[in-house]
Amino acid sequence: MKNAVKTKNILDKSKYLITDKVYDNFVSIHKNLGFIEITPQHWQGETLEAALKYLGVNDEKGTKIKSPIEEIIIYKSHIEHLINDNDSYRKKHLNRAIRTIQEPNLIIKKDVYNNYVKLFIDNNDKIKAHLQIVKIKADGNFYVTNFKLTKQQFRKNILEGEIIYDLSSMSSTKVPT
Hints:
Helices cover 27% and strands 24% of the residues. It is α+β, with helices and mostly antiparallel strands. It has one domain. Strands 1, 4, 5, 6, 7 and 8 form a six-stranded mixed beta sheet that branches. Strand 4 and strand 5 (113-121) form a beta hairpin. The chain is globular.
């Protein structure tokens, strides 16, 4: 992945709006540029304590994770909901959440959130891509949503939000039309 330049500029979203298939356009552009990452292995830990140790989280100092536009500090309180003992779905996607912060495909500012979006593809190289959003409020609080967005939800986010980071705009490769 290329290093991104920090920007506060609102980026052009018209390339995703060429047709009404906004999600498909997004996937196609990023796939053609080689910007879809193989889905990371599921996190194998079981407890909140194991997650804190894995991430190096100290409750007083937290741990810093660098994104292309900001540095996120994750505290114990920010990941407690992610590692709920009864929620294996959230637990196993910890690695995916961290990769989404580190190297997103898009960051969409919507309301008070920066929505981090990253595409993943399975190990069989199937076209099926996964989408995950990591939300970081303006005050730095960290929230993770561990669900796949529908194409309609993704389209709504693109239409209503402002793209403040787009990995495909960092490439000198021509975007297909």
